[in-house]
Amino acid sequence: MEKNKEIARIFERMADILEFLGDNPYRINTYRRVANVLSELNENVEELVRKGKIYRIPGLGESSVEKIIEYLQTGKISKYEELKKQVPEDLLELMEVPGIGPKTLKLAYERLKIKTKEEFIQAVKSGKLAFLPGMGEKKLQNILRGLELWQKSRERMSLLEAYDIGRGLLKYFEGVKELYEKIELAGSLRRRKETVGDIDLLVSARKENWKRLHQHFVAYPSVKEVLLHGETKSSIVLENGRQVDFRTVEPHQWGSALQYFTGSKEHNVRVRDIAKAKGLKLSEYGLFVADTEEWLGGRTEEEVYELIGMQWVPPEIRENTGEVELALEGRLPKLVELKDIKGDFHMHTNWSDGINTLEEMAQACYELGYQYMVVGDHSQSARVANGLDPARYREQFKLIERLNEYYNPRGFYILKGCEVDILPDGSLDLPDELLEEFDFVVASIHTRFNQDNTYRILKAIESPYVNLIGHPTGKAYGTRESYPLDMERVFELAKETGTALELNIHRADLSPELVRKCMERGVFIAIVTDAHAVKHLSYMELGVGLARRGWAVPELVLNTKDLESIKAFVRRKRELMLSGRVV
Ligand code: DGT
Ligand code: CA
Ligand code: CA
Ligand code: ZN
């Protein structure tokens, strides 16, 4: 009955648009009635059309039936496509929100000049919407709740959120260690996709333990709803609305199951086809001879790929974007790994807007086994972030020097650094005399996110003292899109001058696509946590995953360099730029 629902939804939407446009009430009612009829039908609409019975259904006129048939044949209703063009896209989207009707949107549009989703949400939150006629407290509350639900149901979670949920689940399963052999988070989370639809948890265990494992799973403390409770598969929805799928497999199936449930679907389809061409059959249950069903293997992923005649493919690049061909030829690049990382270049302390002290951040980085860290507090123009003026930076230098007396003999180095603001004209928020005193400088844009910022970034790269461009595209998941930016020119100048671009874990900026371009063009990236507290420092693993997703190789990841190479990187740029050989 899927089609019944789909078509009913479109008629409902058409009615909404007509109402928004102030069309004639008769037609609006007709569309709503058709929507009702379709959703109440006991029979499948496709079936009714095939048997010619559709014309005998009360409430469906000839032109409605035409539209239904058009949809079944083409997947579209042209009238709907035409209507959609007459309403701002954002408002159209809002019509889907429970509690928000076309009347409300029309009023908001006409009286408050609201044209975008953001403006509408803002008007709800600021109470401005309450001034519309007929808008009571209860209705406002409904709208608020509806918005919340809708946003949650439609937005995929950020990788960071999924990672946190995943870590929580793994910890929870440590409590029943004796019941299973292996456990892993699969799906898009394992592939480190920037957004994650649902979380997939996979366990290998002897069959007799499966029942207890599934009981343990559905008893997870933050469960809101159990969608499915079986003996091989269970699904839950957490209180925050996120879904987790859980599967148990037998130990000898582990590798093939992990390979299958990691995806991506596109990658799996390719791999299966290759297996098929060799007379093999690959499924989540193992690798088999196609004709005889003889089991060949599948204990580990490595075994699966090897038996098919391929290199093992890192999960982060399993997207069928060239990795399959290279794996067949044994030519996959060696990607950067967490153990290659020697330091972090961007973090904040409570000198600006961080939570922890410099001492605490330093100790945490030391305990992570790093060789160095860059302190990167905000500069003066970032007032909301309690940015530092030159005098305070110099004061901070003294503290860093004192701490270094303790840490350097232990093989750990705190580098003097900053996250200097790139001002609207592209100049830097700190004078050259001070910039010169830093060991490493990050420069970032924190204002005017809506304009083309190419000139600002290029100008910052031209500074002899800027070593890293912070969150280059300005994107922030869930709140902001990137500003227009001529990445090709940025890549070119970054490469020419020896300036790195930041992969900021919090913002997934650079995106994996851009990281891949950096690799192709020979531009350095630096993976940074932008930590504002000690606990954020541990997200480096995630950053490495995002970099790997962009096919990052250690040679072009600045954090894999040792302290001497970092110093040389900084020195080289200063010499180059001050000698006037570039620009
Ligand atoms: P998501 O949850 O939307 O972020 O993306 P995934 O990749 O985690 O997708 P999900 O949760 O639907 O399924 C997990 C993996 O299971 C997926 O990456 C590949 C595998 N899988 C699921 N359904 C199919 C299917 O119909 N065909 C194939 N070949 N693989 C599938
Ligand atoms: Ca998933
Ligand atoms: Ca799933
Ligand atoms: Zn920043």
Summarize the structure.
This protein is an alpha/beta fold and 583 residues long. It is built from 24 helices and 18 strands.
What does this structure look like?
The chain has 583 residues and is α/β, with parallel strands linked by helices. It contains 24 helices and 18 strands. The chain has three domains: 154 residues, DNA polymerase beta, N-terminal domain-like (DNA polymerase, domain 1); 172 residues, Beta Polymerase, domain 2, CATH 3.30.460; 241 residues, Metal-dependent hydrolases (TIM Barrel). A five-stranded mixed beta sheet has the order 2-4-7-6-5, sandwiched between helices. Helix 1 packs across helix 5 and helix 22 packs across helix 23. The longest helix is centred in the first third of the chain and has 20 residues. The protein is globular and about 85 Å long. 40% of the residues are buried. The site of one calcium ion has 5 residues, from helix 11.
Can you give keywords for this protein?
583 residues; binds 2'-deoxyguanosine-5'-triphosphate; binds zinc ion; five-stranded parallel beta sheet; 24 helices; 3 domains; Beta Polymerase, domain 2; globular; DNA polymerase, domain 1; TIM Barrel; 44% helix; alpha/beta; binds calcium ion
**Domains, number:** 3
The backbone outline, from C-alpha atoms, is globular
Task: For the record, give the distance between the C-alpha atoms at the N and C termini, rounded to a whole number.
Answer: 65 Å
Largest sheet: 5 strands, mixed
CATH domain class name of the largest domain? Alpha Beta
Largest sheet, spatial ordering of strands: 2-4-7-6-5
Poorly predicted segments: none
Mean residue pLDDT: 93
User: What's the total helix number?
Assistant: 24
Find the CATH topology of the largest domain: TIM Barrel
From the helix content, strand content and strand pairing, which structural class follows? alpha/beta
Helix content: 40-55%
Name the CATH architecture of the largest domain.
Alpha-Beta Barrel
CATH superfamily of the largest domain: Metal-dependent hydrolases
Percent of sequence in beta strands: 5-15%
Number of strands: 18
